[in-house]
Automatic annotation (TrEMBL), chains A, B:
Keyword vocabulary terms for this entry: Amino-acid biosynthesis, ATP-binding, Diaminopimelate biosynthesis, Kinase, Lysine biosynthesis, Nucleotide-binding, Transferase
Name recorded for this polypeptide: Aspartokinase
Residues making up the signal peptide according to the UniProt record: none
Residues that bind substrate: 47, 74
Catalytic reactions of this protein: L-aspartate + ATP = 4-phospho-L-aspartate + ADP
GO molecular-function term, one example from the UniProt record: aspartate kinase activity
Entries under NCBIfam families matching the protein: asp_kin_monofn, asp_kinases, PRK06635.1-1, PRK06635.1-2, PRK06635.1-4
Domain ACT: 270-346, 352-425
Top enzyme category: transferase
CDD domains: AAK_AKii-LysC-BS, ACT_AKii-LysC-BS-like_1, ACT_AKii-LysC-BS-like_2
Residues the entry annotates as binding ATP: 7-10, 174-175, 185, 210-211
Length: 425, 425
C-alpha cells in the first residue's frame, strides 16, 4: 500500500462532468489499496473570472483581499470533488489550505510555504478516507490570514504535502502525457521523456516549460519527493522527475547528455545605451532595477569601446516587469549619465538542457551551428552547468527550436529527451 | 461616536456596481465618525448557482462539503466589498466567519451560533478600519470545520456580532423601507411601521414576514440588540425593533394593540383521518412526524364522534417536509390503524399580531367577522399571547389579508402597524 498525492489542475476539473471523471480516477486509486491525498486547483477559468470581478471594482485591489477572493475558487472545486467521490461510495473530505496545515509567510499573492502540519490529513487517511486539499493557498502563522502561492501554486502545494506526509509519489496530472523533448505544438517529432533529474527539470521549468511550476520542482528537489507528471486522460506512465543518481541508476547505459529544448516568449529585453564604463555602474543600474521589483534573467555587457569609454548593458526580464523598470531607469538617467534606453518585447529564448553539458565540448558549437544553418541570429547567450540559453527574435523562435531539436537528434528516437515547453503565447 | 453593525443582503451586492454603491454608503457611515462592522451575504444568485453545481454532481451532497462549497459565496462578496471601500480611501479588511470568531455547533447546513469571539474585529476597529464579515457562516470549535447557518443566516451573524461587540445598533439593509403593516404587494394601503417589539417581530417573522429571519430576532431579543430594518436605497428611517418597554416608553399615547397582518403560503396541511380516539395516539403520530424531520406548525384535532370512536388530526408543516412525512406516516398506517391520509398544499395562513391581544376581548370576533363578511372560510385556528393565525384556501389568502387589514383600521393611518409579509410565492 502506497501513500499517493495526486494533483489535478483547473482544466481537469473544468465542469461537473470533468469533476466526476476525476473522482472516478481517485476512487480507483483508493480501491487499489492506496492512501490517497488529492490537491485540486480552481475549476477552469474561475480564477480569471474572479480577477476580472476584482478589476471591475478597482484597478489596484489590496493583495490581502485579492487572496481571500481567489481562494474561493479552490473552495468550490474541492468540495464538489469530495461530493463526487463520496457519491461513488468512497468517503472523502475536503480541506482548505489552512485546515490542511499549509503555513506560509505573509507575502500575499506569492506566499512561500514555511511549514506543513498536516495533522487533519493524516487523521483522515487513518480513517481510510480520501483527503482533498485546496491547492494554491495557505495561511499565515500568527495572524491566520489567507494567502495564495502565485502561479503554479497548486503544484507546490502537492509537492509540499507529499514531503510533509512522506508520500511515496506525487502525481501531477495534466492534459499532456508528460514532459516532452520540446513543445509538440512546435516540434511534432518531440517525444515524451521517461525520466528527468530534478536539476534538469529545474532548468527546463525556469526556461519556459510550463508542465511543472519551477517552485514545485525546487521543493521536490530539496525534500527528495519523487514526482510523476502524467495525463489525466490515460493510464500510461508519464515522466518521472527524480534525483540524478536515481535517474542514472535506473538507466544502465550512459545517459545521453541532452534532455531537451525549452522555449519562452514571455520575456522582454531592456538595453541601457552609452553607460559610462566606470566601476560600480552596473551595480547601481541593477540596484535600480531590483528596486522596481523586476526579476532579471540574462545580462549581457558589451566590451567597452576604448575611444568613448562608454558601454551598453542589456538584460531580459518578464514582460510584466517592463514598464515599472523602464520608469525607474528613466528617473535616474541624469544621475547615471547614460545616453538612452531601449525596450524590446519581441524576443524569444531557446534553452538547451542536459546533464554535464559544460564537460562535453562541442555542445555549444553544435547549437550555434544549427542556428546559423537555419539563418537565425543570436542576440544574447547565457550558460549554466546544464543549460545553454540564447535569445533570438520572437518570430524566429519556432524555427530555432525545430533546428536545435533535430541537430541534437531528439526527433522521434527512443532515449532521454526534453521538456514540453509551451508558454501559452 | 457609535458602533454600528450593518448587514447587506445578496440583492444589495448583486454585481460590481452594487458593491461600489454599498461601499459608498459604508464609507459615509465611517466618515460620519462611527465604528463600522459590515456583514455581507453572497452576491445575488451565487448561492443558488453553487447549489445547482452540487446538484449536477450528486442529488445528496454530504452536508459538510455543501457548507464548504456555499461559503465560497460570501468569500467573494466580502473581499470585493473590502476592495471597493479601500478604493474610496477608507481602510477595510474582510474576515471569514472563522476569522471573525463566529463559533457554531456542528450541525452542518443549519448550525447555531454558540459563541462569538470577535478579537480580530475589535482590533480592526481599534485601528480605525472598517471590518467586513462573511455572513451565514461559522466554524466548529474543536474540529475547525466550516458551517453554514441556514436561511437568513446573515441576519443572525449580524445580530450575534452586534451582541458580541456591544454595538449601539444593528442595521439590516434590505430592498424595502422597513417592516410594513402587511405585504404592500397585496395591500397597497399598507404602512411602514416605525417601532415594533421583539415579541411582535418574532410572531411576524414566524408567520411569514420575510424581512427579518426568525432566528436573528430571537437572538436580538435574548441579548437586547437594537435592530433597525431599513432600505439600502434611501437614507430614511426604517423600522426599529426593540424591547416592549422601550417601545411603549417612546410612545406616550396608549399603543394600539394590533401591529400588523402577516401571511404565509409556504406550508402544507396533512390530515390523518379516522384515528382511533385512544390515549397516546396523538403522541405516537407526532413521534413519527418528528422522526421524519418535519417542523410542525399548527395542530387541530376534531372532537371524537362518539358513535365511531374515531377522530381526525390535521397539522401544518413546511411544504418541503411534506413528502418525507407522508411516507413516514404511510409506513405506520397498519400499526396506528387510521383510515387514510390527506395532503393539501393549497393552503394559506394569515396571522394577526399585536401586543396584549388575549387581554382585549373582541379581537378574534372582529377577525372572524371580517373574514365571514369577505366570504372566506376558516379551516384551522391557533392563537398565542400576541397572535391569532387562521388557515384559509391559498387562493383566498390575499383577499383575507386585505379584509383583515381594513377591519383593524390599519389602512394608511399613522400609528403602529404590522409587517411586510412577502413570501416569495
Amino acid at each position: 500500500m502506497a501513500l499517493v498525492v495526486q494533483k489535478y489542475g483547473g482544466s481537469s476539473v473544468g465542469d461537473a462532468r470533468s469533476v466526476k471523471r476525476v473522482a472516478k480516477r481517485i476512487a480507483e486509486a483508493k480501491r487499489a489499496g492506496n492512501d490517497v491525498v488529492v490537491v485540486v486547483s480552481a475549476m477552469g477559468d474561475t480564477t480569471d473570472e474572479l480577477l476580472d470581478l476584482a478589476q471591475q471594482i478597482t484597478p489596484l485591489p489590496p493583495q490581502r483581499e485579492l487572496d481571500i477572493l481567489l481562494t474561493a475558487g479552490e473552495r468550490i472545486s474541492m468540495s464538489l470533488l469530495a461530493m463526487a467521490i463520496t457519491n461513488l461510495g468512497v468517503k472523502a473530505k475536503s480541506y482548505t489550505g489552512q485546515q490542511a496545515g499549509v503555513i506560509t509567510d505573509a507575502v500575499h499573492g506569492r506566499a512561500r510555504i514555511v511549514d506543513v502540519v498536516p495533522h487533519r490529513i493524516r487523521e483522515t487517511l487513518n480513517k481510510g478516507q480520501v483527503a482533498i486539499v485546496a491547492g494554491f493557498q495557505g495561511v499565515t502563522q500568527g495572524t491566520n490570514d489567507v494567502t495564495t502561492l502565485g502561479r503554479g501554486g497548486s503544484d507546490t502545494t502537492a509537492v509540499a504535502l507529499a514531503a510533509g506526509l512522506g508520500a511515496d509519489v506525487c502525481e501531477i496530472y495534466t492534459d499532456v502525457d508528460g514532459v516532452f523533448t520540446a513543445d509538440p505544438r512546435i516540434v511534432p517529432a518531440a517525444r515524451k521523456i521517461d525520466r528527468v533529474s530534478y536539476e534538469e527539470m529545474l532548468e527546463l521549468a525556469a526556461c519556459g516549460a510550463k508542465v511543472l511550476a519551477l517552485r514545485s520542482v525546487e521543493y521536490a528537489r530539496r525534500y527528495g519527493v519523487p514526482v510523476h507528471v502524467r495525463s489525466s486522460f490515460s493510464a500510461h506512465d508519464g515522466t518521472r522527475v527524480l534525483a540524478a543518481e536515481e535517474k542514472s541508476k535506473e538507466n544502465a547505459m550512459e545517459a545521453p547528455i541532452i534532455s531537451g529544448v525549452a522555449h519562452d516568449r514571455s520575456e522582454s529585453k531592456i538595453t541601457v545605451i552609452g553607460v559610462p564604463d566606470v566601476p560600480g555602474m552596473a551595480a547601481r543600474i541593477f540596484e535600480v532595477v531590483a528596486g522596481a521589483g523586476a526579476n532579471i534573467d540574462m545580462i549581457v555587457q558589451n566590451v567597452s569601446a576604448a575611444a568613448t569609454g562608454l558601454t551598453d548593458i542589456s538584460f531580459t526580464l518578464p514582460d510584466g516587469d517592463g514598464p515599472a523598470t523602464m520608469a525607474a531607469l528613466t528617473a535616474v538617467q541624469g544621475e547615471l549619465a547614460f545616453d538612452s534606453l531601449q525596450f524590446d518585447d519581441q524576443i524569444g529564448k531557446l534553452s538547451l538542457v542536459g546533464a554535464g553539458m559544460k564537460s562535453h565540448p562541442g555542445v555549444s558549437a553544435r547549437l550555434f551551428g544549427a542556428l546559423r544553418d537555419a539563418g537565425i541570429n543570436i542576440e544574447m547567450i547565457s550558460t549554466s552547468e546544464i543549460r545553454i540559453s540564447v535569445v533570438t527574435r520572437a518570430d524566429s523562435l519556432d524555427d530555432a527550436v525545430r533546428a536545435v531539436h533535430t541537430a541534437f537528434e531528439l526527433d522521434g528516437v527512443d532515449g532521454e529527451a526534453v521538456v514540453y515547453a509551451g508558454t501559452g503565447r
